[in-house]
Amino acid sequence: MTTSREVRLKSRPVGMPKAENFELASVTLGAPGPGEVQVRNTWMTVDPYMRGRMNDVKSYVPPFQLGEVLQGGAVGEVTASNDPSLKVGDLVQSNNGWREAFNSPAAGVQKVDTHGLPPEALLGVAGMPGLTAYAGLLKVAGLKDGDVVFVSGAAGAVGSLVCQIAKLKGHKVIATAGGADKVKFLKEELGVDVAIDYKASKNLSADLMAAAPEGIDVYFDNVGGEHLEAALNAAKPFARFAICGMISMYNASAPVPGPSNLAQIIGKQLRVEGFIVSSHWDMMPAFLKDLATWHAAGQLTWKQTVREGIDKAPEAFMGLFSGENFGKMLVKLS
Ligand code: NDP
Questions:
Q1: Range scoring the smallest mean pLDDT among 159-163, 179-183, 198-202, 253-257
Q2: Looking at beta carbons, which pairs linking 197-201 to residues 24 or more positions away fall under 8 Å?
Q3: How far, in Å, is the centroid of ligand 1 from the Cα of 31?
Q4: Own/partner pairs, 25-31, CB within 8 angstroms, 24+ separation
């Protein structure tokens, strides 16, 4: 018998999630049945999209259920196997995060090769957030020579890779993040041309226009709200907007008014396109190939913010909404 602690959704958050919305419980796992494996998670991810799943609303992913263990990406090690396709010690990835260990049909987990990267990179730079950056910038925004690129949420998991890909391809990059340390990171470690501390800015639109007097060709939106309004004001005719996320609205308890200047989409003939990374899994092999090349050439940097222990998972998740993370927010489980 194995004991596993797990985090369940106790109540649906209203506004900012709070500790009382989560509960830590213990379950006992028997030996895996025929065709099953037992996995001990070593890392799990917390991601902003999980906030949407905590609401009882229809979306592109179903809501989490009250009283049930939460779900999300995790990597772990097979500790017992009752299926020939996997053996003890295999590294696997699954959607069974928010728990220390679990039994699963072997087909419910995916054996992975890290290609020399640390396993937790599969949850960040070499996983879903990394592909989001790559597909959003190169395919959705259709990055092309000479583009001036504006990225919001730029010090996070997705944004920090968007900045780097755009810089590697020779573009002028303007990036926003909250706080002086993040601005320093954007300038000194990611090499962006202009970094704006949106929390200190008195007029984001004016600051963006000063950073890009020539206008922007691409906006990679992670934040929405005031950032989107500023990007619309700074957009050149025919600019392309890849709408990836709008984290500034995820905890709103009442509908948030849209930008006041949406009509610029018409006059400037902008292309504003939302996307979901799962529609772009076909780009994963090309992404991993490029990532490996950049990594081998020493051209990539990625940061992680790590909380230790399953009991810290809610705190890690909540920290996403107060900007506690540099790069990918992760929880180390064993
Ligand atoms: P991050 O690692 O960027 O973490 C979230 C960051 O958002 C925080 O560190 C904080 O940075 C910033 N933030 C939080 N609240 C606000 C706010 N009110 N206003 C402005 N910034 C805020 O997360 P990810 O990189 O994982 O995700 C970034 C965005 O991409 C999210 O909107 C997410 O939902 C979206 N996403 C979309 C996907 C898709 O398929 N479309 C897939 C993956 C992610 P700071 O300190 O700078 O405020």
A1: 253-257
A2: 198/152, 198/226, 198/227
A3: 39
A4: 25/69, 27/3, 27/99, 28/1, 28/2, 28/3, 28/4, 29/1, 29/2, 29/3, 29/4, 29/101, 29/102, 29/103, 30/1, 30/103, 31/80, 31/82
CA of 161 to the centre of ligand 1 (A): 13
Q: What is the pLDDT of residues 65-102, one digit of tens each?
A: 999 999 999 999 999 999 999 999 999 999 999 999 99
- The residue whose C-alpha atom lies closest to atom 35 belonging to ligand 1 is 245
What is the Cα Rg of the chain in Å? 21
Q: What is the token pair recorded at 321?
A: 């909404």
309 lines ligand 1 (CB under 6 A): no
Q: How far is the CA of 245 from the centre of ligand 1 (A)?
A: 7
Distance CA 114, CA 132 (A): 19
Whether 159 lines ligand 1, by a CB cut-off of 6 Å, is yes
